[in-house]
Design a protein that fits this description.
The complex is a heterodimer of chains A (157) and B (158).
Chain A: H1 2-11, H2 14-37, H3 39-49, H4 54-77, H5 81-104, H6 123-145, H7 148-155
Chain B: H1 3-30, H2 42-47, H3 51-60, E1 64-68, H4 72-77, E2 79-80, E3 84-85, H5 91-104, E4 107-111, H6 119-129, E5 135-138, H7 141-147, E6 152-153
Parallel strand pairs in B: 1-3, 1-4, 4-5
Antiparallel strand pairs in B: 2-6
Classes of the chains: A mainly alpha (157), B alpha/beta (158).
Chain lengths: 157, 158
């Protein structure tokens, strides 16, 4: 079928997939800034999700924004792509699961997704995270199937 | 995935996580608005100490009136020493006798039994609506009072 072939050629295009990866990198960098500036507020947001033990809430609030920043930079610049693309997808899976869990049990809490007080969790924030996950999967396909030489050239290795 | 690729993913992932941990912990230590690494339970940080201890101190000094919000049977089986029984269902009936005591008391503390019993809170709310501001609630008061080995008494006498 021509439609399916076109879909394959778009998804399989290394150039487009590389852009998906860079966009995801920028999203992660943007998402880290407000949390880096206000760790106390981010800790409150994490606490309200009620999915982490109390003893881990502050540690995650301290470390996660930096991880998001480094992962975003890696994706954007093409450094350590294999490790960062796997971590990004794992993080997005965790975010999607935490959102779905709290939407399902009807908790009315702040998303804490891009800014600490950006708005509540809704079906929209859940679908948005799913879209990011799709970008992540696309980027993973690129990173793990693209020709090594092209990647190494970009990474300057 | 080949074993060498898996090792590469693991090594890069681990280094990224370590870099984030080091950056996060160092910056959090240096910045003025850093947060504690381990979060303390909210009650401990807000109260500073257990409200039970403070209330027990007040009782020793005779500065507190306890109101037991549980049904009469529970009250008769045992209650905080000196507590007056005000079952919520009989609030209006009992208040005439209790009001002079409340007027004389420095602090009024209501309680019920069990983490899920809110009779103490409802009673406190009613008293506040009546204009008494110095009313506090001792959550799960009867159980915690007993566990702490503080003075109790039985019967309906007091």
């Amino acid at each position: 079928m021509p439609g399916r072939r076109r879909f394959r050629s778009v998804v399989g295009s290394a150039r487009l997939a590389a852009w998906a990866r860079r966009v995801l990198g920028m999203i992660f960098i943007l998402a880290s800034i407000d949390k880096l500036l206000e760790p106390a507020l981010f800790a409150e947001a994490i606490l309200n999700y009620q999915v982490l033990p109390l003893s881990l809430v502050n540690l995650v609030a301290i470390v996660l924004p930096w991880l998001e920043l480094f992962l975003g930079l890696s994706l954007l610049a093409g450094w350590w792509l294999k490790g960062s693309v796997v971590l990004v997808n794992l993080l997005l899976l965790a975010f999607v699961a935490a959102l779905a869990f709290n939407l399902a049990r009807g908790l009315d809490i702040q998303c804490g997704c891009f800014t600490n007080a950006g708005g509540p969790i809704t079906l929209w924030t859940f679908l948005r995270d799913l879209a990011f996950l799709a970008l992540g999967a696309w980027a993973a396909v690129e990173v793990f199937t693209a020709e090594r030489t092209a990647l190494e050239k970009e990474a300057g290795q | 995935m080949k074993a060498s690729t898996a090792r590469l993913v693991l090594r890069q992932g681990l280094l990224l996580v370590i870099a984030a941990m080091v950056s996060g912990l160092v910056v959090n230590y240096l910045r003025a608005d850093g947060i504690p690494l381990i979060r303390q339970p909210v009650t401990a940080s807000r109260e500073g100490f257990d409200p039970l201890v403070r209330v027990a101190d007040l009782q020793r000094e005779g500065r507190v009136l306890f109101l037991d919000a549980r049904p009469e049977g529970d009250y008769a089986a045992g209650h905080i020493a000196g507590a007056i029984n005000v079952p919520l269902a009989e609030f209006d009936l009992r208040m005439d006798a209790v009001l002079p005591l409340i007027d004389a008391a420095e602090t009024v503390v209501t309680y019920c039994d069990g983490e899920d019993c809110h009779l103490g809170e409802i009673l406190a709310q009613k008293l506040r609506e009546w204009g008494y501001a110095n009313v506090e609630v001792l959550p799960n008061g009867w159980s915690r009072w007993q566990v702490a080995g503080l003075p109790v008494e039985r019967g309906t006498g007091s």
